[in-house]
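Notebook entry, structure prediction.
Reason for the run: the old model in the group folder had no record of what sequence produced it. Starting over properly, with the input documented here first.
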Amino acid sequence: MTYIHELENWPNFLWDEERLSALLIQLRHKQGRLIGGMESIGFHARDETILQTVTQDVVKSSEIEGEILDPALVRSSVARHLGMESAATRIADRNIDGVVAMMLDATQNFTEPLTQERLFDWHISLFPMGRSDFKKIRVGAWRTGPVHVVSGQFGKELIHFTAPAAKRVAEEMNRFLRWFNSDTDMDLVLKAAIAHLWFITIHPFDDGNGRIARALTDLLLARSEKSPHRFYSLSAQIQAERKGYYTILEQTQKGSLHIAQWLEWFFACIGRAIGNALATLDTLLHKARAWEALADISLNERQRKIINRLLDGFDGKLTSSKWAKIAKCSQDTALRDILDLMDRGILVKGADSGRSTHYLLKTTPV
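New structure, fully documented this time:
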């Protein structure tokens, strides 16, 4: 089996410029819509979106590698690193803080050059104890042994990919870093897709290559948007499409240097990640408009809490008993709250009656 890193012209990648340009234009349009839309919402909603996105990015990037992190601890660590002290409710361990620090260094300091030392620092942050799954690994330095990506039971392993020999790694990474830091006319989203493939093919570390590859991708996407703020999670999208990701990656690494299929898949994956964020943005804008319409109406805390739940997409049907349970009040108080909102034209009664009586926001289809 010959891998792309063994081909004569490696790493001179090829693609169909005309077709890729058309896809990039569509993707850039989506990026612009999302960034512009996020600028139109309030600071609190935007900060919350950033907090949720970075948390999701960290959790899902680790999940792809089989490591499950506590979302609450990750969120608290992200909040503390971003200076959102009110949201930093719990103390995370060194492993979580390290992953968060790496991801945020990539996006918050996206204008800084990528150096060997910076990559080594990221690697140390990922493995502060110098171990992976209780196995001691070489940390903060290029690997010195071979790498094989395999699956299957012991004795029946299937080799999906073999990385370049360890003696090639330093030279390969020097070439990669020169290219990464070079100023060219290449679109930065295109550069992000190539960087991801190139870095993960070199596989320079004993472990953590996937997470660092995704951090590098986020760094270049931040450069492409000229913003440290993340409103969509590529890692979450890759995790959702994990099977397809590994399939196209393997096909590309076993193929030719014409990587158009990889680029098309990667662009589409980013597009779907942005599409999910745009759907969330629509919800935020709907919620903001709803509260704007209610700005001059006096509401108690219970009513505000339930209206918020309805605007977020209430699970099931809102009954008076559910109101009482969520608002932690008596059934009589819940009914008074409901009737008050109905009198003001904020709530309407659903089509069912009797014990099935339920209530909806007036703008919600009955």
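Summary: Strands lie at 131-132, 135-136, 148-151, 158-162, 347-349, 359-361.
The old model has been moved to the deprecated folder.
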